[in-house]
Amino acid sequence: MAFNLLKRLLLKFVKYYLPILILSVLAVLWIYKKEHSSLITLQENELSYKKQLIVELLKPMLANLYYWEQYGFSENDFNPDKNSRLNKDIGDFFIGMDSYSQFRLINLSGTEVFRLNRKENGQIVKSNELQDKADRDYYKLTRDLRKDQIYLSPLNLNQENGILETPYKPMIRGVAPIYDTIGNKLGIVVINFSAIKLSDLLKKNNHYPFMLLDRQGSYLVSDDGIKEFAHLIPNGQNITFKEDRPQVWDSLNTKENKSLLLNGDLWVKTELDFKSELLRTPLFQHKSMDIDTTNKWVLLKHIDSQLLTVGIKNDVFLVLLINVLAIIAIFCMSFLETTSENSKRRYLSALELMNNELEEKSTQLEHKNKALASIQNKLEVRNAQLLEYNNIVAHNLRAPTTSVSTLVSMLQESKDYEEAKSYFPKLQKITHAINTLVDDLLVYVRILNDENEVRLEKIALEPLITSTLNLYVETLDQVTIDVKTDLKAWDQINFSRIYLQSIIQNLISNAIKYKDPDKNPVIIIRTLWEGNRKVLLVEDNGVGIDMNRHGSDIFKLYKRFHRGLSGKGMGLFLVKTQLESLNASIEVTSEVGIGTTFKITFDKYE
Amino acid sequence: MNKLHFFLIDDDEIFQFIMKNTIAEVSPDIKIKFFSDGEKGIDFLKQNLGAAINLPDIILLDVNMPFMDGWEFLHEYKSLQTELKKEISIYLLTSSNNPQDIAKAKEISTLSGYLVKPISKDGIKNLVTNFPSNEWYHNDY
Fold first, then answer.
1. pLDDT tens by residue, A173-187
2. Arithmetic mean of pLDDT, A85-103
3. How far apart are CA A584 and CA A504, in angstroms?
4. Is A146 within 8 Å of chain B by CB?
5. ipTM of the modeled complex
6. Rounded (to 5) percent helix, strand, coil in chain B
7. What pLDDT, in 10s, does the model give residues B5-17?
């Protein structure tokens, strides 16, 4: 019982909670997505801004290089012994250009002809140790730069005499070819542009870790500064982003999307292809530069999974809280509902039980009522019978007994024996009458008390009628009496054989006795059904009875209505009593001169 | 005692015999005629409506008779009463002091009283001496 309750409770709970759960999950997913997209948008914007920044910082470099290309150097300028004028001209310029960290002119052979350095303290120093740069990579790359071509190197660390300058100085080398006024190539100008500012600016105001990577996946700028230029530092750990996070690097390169969600971490990138970005940059006199560079940078933002969730933590927590509250509320509600349902169910089943009981009791009552009604009927009949008995005793017994006493007193007063003798036959007559009466009464009482111990048996009507008629075969011979039977409705009855014989005998005998001498006597015996009761009709066309005068006396004892015909007037009285003892009844209809019909109605089911 | 004329309408032969003797002992002048049932009595009355000489002064009427009992006789008698040329007092005879019968008897206007059987000599004497009476008469029993 309790298990059932629990099961129902759980079902109800699930029914109510499930939608909320689904909604919550959807809500969380939506929060997540929103956070993601907003973050992505933010970071994309930031990266875009940073890209702009880089481009803006690159533009002056281009402008500068172009300037120097157009400067109009002479052959002498490329002769270290003859270019002292450059000290001031370029030196003054150099001071103002704080992005310059080094300015060099290199001749066609690859030897430096002029060099200016910016020292740590900001001082500009002309170096007289002019180096041969012919073997350097960048020389080889740029030696054959055409007119109007500019070269930008990858982000590099500044070297001094072949050794990395410390602290590390990130820079970009810009190279432009120098032609004299006639158009002869003199050499190249190489400017080391400091990228510290760039680096610093890129590292500023980052909510989330920022990285600048080159095409190979090496760190150029990173927030923690440790891994920067690891690919350039000789003894340092050669860690590149590519090696650090190969999966991310591959995904970033293969997928088109600007954002990537991998292992819970969010990566947002923007690509900066120098050539394509700077190609669109117009220069003086609407002339665009032909830039030779291999730089293809990736600006990357990394949002750690934990950081991701931080933003939405509150919201998710709220959803969780709501869920918990909902769970509690729904659980309570379900519990209440279940218990109320339970009590309702119990109440209903109790009601049903009561209903059933009531129905049963009502049926019982009905049965008892029916039984009572039947008993009442029987009592009424019995009452009538006793009344009859009373009447018989009062009227029929008292008369002869009083006569006896009168006669006896008369006897006592008789004068002589002769007179006395005359009284004896009278006394005899009376005593005989009393005896007869008592005998008749006994017959009556026996029927009343069922001392005859009547048994019910199945009786076939046809043979019974036939055997009764045989008793009167002589009479029937003398006078042709037509006896018709119609037993189509029923021909068998459960009754007492003795009584039924007596009854049929009586009725037939009466029909014969009271025949109309002016008519051909006809007796019709018929069966029919009235509802669920069998009915037997005995009709004759005899003299009939005056029902107005004698209707109420037909079944009374010793009542006779036809002078000159034999009989005490007992037959019908006994017939009625016999029938009553087995819950049957008899009625008579008659018309003087027409005939009489006796109708016996048997008890139902018989 | 004047010469009273009795009718006894009763089916009991013995009672007829007894009454005959009893009345004879009271007075030999009293005439009595016997009818064995109500129908016979009525028929006689019908046939002698005008013959006062044949009509009785007193009718003793039994209740319990075949063919026509006392009540039926009284019913028939009522329709004859106006045509009868004599004032007849009818007394109902009953062998039981059945209160129902007695009550019923009192209701009938044609009855002058009732007598419970057996009727003694004194009973007849009383009846005769008090005759005619306007009051309801019954004997002691």
1. 888 888 888 888 888
2. 82
3. 14
4. no
5. 0.83
6. 40, 20, 40
7. 999 999 888 899 9
d(C-alpha A510, C-alpha A539), whole Å: 11
Distance from chain centroid for Cα A520: 89
**Which band of pLDDT confidence, cut at 50, 70 and 90, is reported for residue A265?**
confident
pLDDT of A289: 66
Of all residues in chain B, the one with the smallest CA distance to A411 is B18
- Strand-strand pairing, A124-126 and A492-495: unpaired
To test the contact with chain B by mutation, choose from A403, A409, A563, A568 the residue with the greatest count of B C-beta atoms within 10 A, namely A403
Q: 3-state SS string over A425-460?
A: HHHHHHHHHHHHHHHHHHHHHHHHCCCCCCCCEEEE
* Pairwise CB contact (< 8 Å): B95 & A399: yes
Is the confidence at residue A349, as pLDDT, over 90? Answer: yes
Cβ–Cβ contact A405 with B under 8 A: yes
> Touching check for A549 and chain B: CB below 8 Å?
yes
Contact A208, A46 (CB under 8 A): no
* Nearest residue to A214 via CA among A230, A226, A201, A203: A230
Residue of A nearest to B40 (CA): A563
Q: Which amino acid is at A402?
A: T
Contact B112, B90 (CB under 8 A): yes
Q: How far is B95 from chain A (nearest CA, A)?
A: 6
Cα distance between residue A478 and residue A515, in whole Å: 13
Average pLDDT over residues A147-161: 81
As a whole number, the mean pLDDT across chain B is: 86
Higher-pLDDT residue of A318 and B99 is A318
A407/B18 touch (CB, cutoff 8 Å), yes or no = yes
Nearest CA in chain B to A410: B18
Q: Name the residue among A512, A524, A506, A476 with its Cα closest to residue A586.
A: A506
With pLDDT > 90 as the criterion, what percentage of chain A qualifies?
Answer: 20
Q: Please compute the mean of the pLDDT values over residues B91-116 and round it to a whole number.
A: 84
All residues of chain B having their beta carbon less than 8 Å from the beta carbon of residue A430 are: 14
**pTM exceeds cut of 0.80:** no
Looking up tokens 């006894």 gives B8
Q: Give the CA distances from residue A362 to residues A184, A355, A375, A450, A550, in Å, rounded to whole numbers and listed in that order.
A: 133, 10, 19, 34, 46
Q: Note the residue count of chain B.
A: 141
Tokens matching residue B42: 């009525």
Residue B98 near residue A399 (C-beta atoms within 8 A): no
